[in-house]
């Protein structure tokens, strides 16, 4: 069995060693050194357009992340970029849900407990009580109640916050008030104190966080974007922060990554920036999940995480 691997940072060795251990029967090849050769599976993160086009030799393409926009958007460059009928399989949690819950909870608690304001007071040598937020008023909305969003929502509900969730189809998550579809979006957003975005990037969700959405939230709300940069209309967020509608934002993803040095977000103290680290692909967990799915496919069993190309996630 042959696996063909593409990782954009070129650090192949730990992946090749990991697959050799998890799937000793497989030969793991670097894409750059095996172009033109047939393989059984491709394992990729943001592959070049030439890698998958016409690849009827492949039985499946495994994406080394939860979001598949880096693969599906190859079709913008070339409508035939994806091999017809070959399933594309995303990582399904593989250790990301716990990381996401930690990251989002840290940001929410920082806002809820006014830690930025206390930091500023400390720097000024000021000892002063600040009126706390009321937990019952600090309603958090999670956009995207899938593998990651459901875990984030449950974790926040565990702190006693009122939590809402929004998805495409109806969902039931313990402790979470659920809304779905375009019809449910308005009621989901109205008066939220914190908006967490963990949607996949699709034609329907691109630019979703714009002025109209931001002004549905409570005055002085917070925005946490851990999904993809193009969900957010960056100028709309900046304007809403400067005008006071949005009190602060924690952004892990950006339209251009790395965030350019002259981007105005760097100069805005109410915007917190992290370099796309809210949920890292964990190599051991990911290899174990992919190896398990390859074995299941070999036995003719169904696997989770197959992407619906029409839906876009
Ligand atoms: P998932 O399991 O596919 O869940 C996606 C959720 O979004 C589902 O609840 C889905 O609704 C909902 N959704 C999709 N389109 C919608 C629409 N038009 N309107 C309303 N709801 C919609 O995905 P996941 O594993 O949770 O991952 C979510 C995203 O997180 C990924 O696509 C990726 O972009 C991002 N991510 C970022 C990082 C990072 O480090 N920053 C790491 C991992 C993932 P249904 O349930 O009804 O289908
Ligand atoms: C990372 O951004 C992922 O989609 O897994």
TrEMBL record:
InterPro entries in the cross-refs: D-isomer_DH_CS, D-isomer_DH_NAD-bd, NAD(P)-bd_dom_sf
Cross-referenced Pfam families: 2-Hacid_dh_C
Domain of life: Bacteria
Keyword field contains NAD: yes
Record flagged with keyword Hydrolase: no
Record's signal peptide: none
Keywords linked to the UniProt accession: NAD, Oxidoreductase
D-isomer specific 2-hydroxyacid dehydrogenase NAD-binding domain: residues covered: 106-278
SUPFAM superfamilies assigned: NAD(P)-binding Rossmann-fold domains (SSF51735)
Gene Ontology MF term list: NAD binding; oxidoreductase activity, acting on the CH-OH group of donors, NAD or NADP as acceptor
Name used for this protein in its record: Glyoxylate/hydroxypyruvate reductase A
